Amino acid sequence: MLSIIIPYYKITFFDKTLQSLAEQTNKEFKVFIGNDNSKNSPLELLDKYKDKFTFQYVKFKANVGSKDLVQQWNRCIELDKSTSEWMMILGDDDVLNKNVVEEFYKQRNRFEGSINVVRFSTIKINEKGDFISDKYYNPIIEKATDFLFRETRSSLSEYVFRKNNLKKTTIKNFPLAWYSDVLAVLEVSSFNQIYSINEAVVNVRISNESISGSSNNMSEKSRASFQFYYYLLNDKYEFFTENQRQILFQKLKNSYFDRKKSLINFLKISSIFFKYFSTKEYLIFLKSLCIKVAKL
User: Fold this and answer.
1) What does the alpha-carbon distance between residue 166 and residue 3 come to, in Å, rounded to a whole number?
2) Cα–Cα distance between 219 and 294 in angstroms, integer?
3) Relative to the CA of 218, which of 102, 206, 229, 287 has its CA 20 to 30 Å away?
4) What is the pLDDT of residue 107?
5) Where are the alpha helices (H) located in the chain, listed in sequence order?
């Protein structure tokens, strides 16, 4: 059985999300919906779909997602006490093509062994549901670390996780949960392989209401980027090739330059230099920093 977790807060596109579940050609799934104490009750919508698929709904007494989105994800994950082996965390504004569940079961025998993360193709959609990107295809088998270094995109909704592994993994709480989903993919997969299903699509909505679509949170995104790349280099260094480490380090430096006034980040990036790179490279970094500061 497949569990589909929906951390609910926004009602704007929720009907489309529920409709996509109702239209699944394979109904062998159960949905768990955790309402983050939203002002917009989804009960009327849920009543509309009560005979279309199986779901469990809980309204939490306190809103936590506004300050800690990962905490909201985690308590929604804990709603599932079933014996299901696999779990999807679906955004309350994203839409599944009708064959997503069918293709998952159809291809299950191909990834049932050592694979812990499965990924679907995606298309970005706007507020109207119009396509705003081409279809993103993925290698059928790909090392989890490799997708960080090719031209692609990633969202939590497109993944299915082996539930036991997901529940054993502590999802890191970066600001806005930005990169928290990417790190979860890496850690749940144990930095090993991901299996991709390109025959079915998850439509990922980009709107002014979504974190990805908003331009009012760039400072927090930058802070999350720094924390993400620092964590990979400081704690997961051994999982990357030398070339990948250089790319990660460049991204870390770029994130730092976005927030140059942070003394803590300066000390952190300095520690990475001293740990893995030469004194000469550190001096070059300091020179670049001085030049950028002088231009302020």
Assistant:
1) 12
2) 21
3) 287
4) 97
5) 14-22, 43-48, 69-77, 100-106, 108-111, 163-168, 180-188, 218-235, 242-258, 263-276, 279-294
Both ends of the chain: CA-CA distance in Å?
Answer: 57
Instruction: Answer whether 234's CB lies under 8 Å from 248's CB.
Output: no
Can you tell me the distance from the alpha carbon of 5 to that of 61, in angstroms, rounded to the nearest whole number?
18
Nearest-angstrom CA–CA distance, 13 and 18: 9
State residue 204 phi and psi, 5-degree precision.
Answer: -100, 120
In whole angstroms, how far apart are CA 8 and each of 43, 59, 204, 248? 12, 9, 15, 33
Whole-angstrom distance, CA of residue 37 vs CA of residue 22 = 24
pLDDT 10s digits, 118-139: 999 999 999 999 999 999 999 9
- What's the angle, vertex CA 258, arms to CA 255 and CA 262, rounded to 5? 90
Instruction: Determine the 3-state secondary structure of 224 from DSSP.
Output: helix
Q: Which residue has the tokens 């529940």?
A: 167
For 1-144, strand residue ranges (E) read 2-8, 29-35, 54-59, 86-89, 95-96, 117-125, 141-143
Q: Which pair of tokens denotes residue 224?
A: 């999350």
How many residues in the chain? 296
**Higher-confidence position of 177 and 287:** 177
Contact 87, 6 (CB under 8 A): no
Which of these, 137, 221, 124, 121, lies nearest to 179 by C-alpha position?
Answer: 221
Q: Look at residues 38, 88, 46 and name the one whose alpha carbon lies nearest to residue 64.
A: 38
Name which of 89, 86, 18 is nearest 54 in CA terms.
Answer: 18
> Can you tell me the distance from the alpha carbon of 19 to that of 209, in angstroms, rounded to the nearest whole number?
20
Q: Tell me if 46 sits within 8 A of 57, measured CB to CB.
A: yes
Convert the pLDDT of each residue in 69-100 to its tens digit.
999 999 999 999 999 999 999 999 999 999 99
